[in-house]
Amino acid sequence: MTKVLFVKASPRDGDSKAVQIAQTYLDALLAHNPDLQVDTLDLWTTDLPAFDGDKVAAKMNVIGGQEHDDAQQTAWEQIVQIADRFISADRYLFAVPMWNSGIPYRLKHYIDLIHQPGLLWALDPQTGYYGLLKGKHAVLALTSGVYAQNVPPAFGTDHHSTYLRDWLNQAGVTEIDELRFQPTLLTEDPAGGLASTSQRAVDLALSHGPL
User: Fold this and answer.
1) Do residues 121 and 130 touch, judged by C-beta distance below 8 A?
2) Residue 109 has pLDDT above 90, yes or no
3) Which of 7, 77, 110, 161 has the fewest C-beta atoms under 10 angstroms from its C-beta?
4) 130 SS3 class
């Protein structure tokens, strides 16, 4: 059974345009794949432990091939438990508004927890990083109030989609689709823009066909 992890990175939940677009895509996907398993991860209601000194030490020990002490082992087991939920999914759906040209801090926190050596990536000293996730697919529902593609820098810069794509690529996820509603504020027809992006979401789901 195919499993989709739906990651909500907005604290506005149903009022978030990114969440609305992602949900439209997901509903269309479910209509054609009723057996699809959906795991919804709301980053604003999920307990994300601090990426503290013990977790950093545990990560460095894994990289260096060193043993953990008791505190580090406990920290690493906590990381593995959180990362396993991500790794177990076949497909990813992210609803991500742009915050200050980047991603919301709760999503960055989550990424910092799960993006670990031996779990999502490995390192070859000669050739560099390589991803450990295989055969995965991601859809990014991206919104921004002012920024849009190809606007002058005074209207913002995209460290939003670029960061997410680079991170996913490093983890081994290279098949990525985007659904953009940008801008949401500097537009004469916000409702029309949302409707257009929502239709693209439905069309994208249909193009993905049976899973």
Assistant:
1) yes
2) yes
3) 77
4) strand
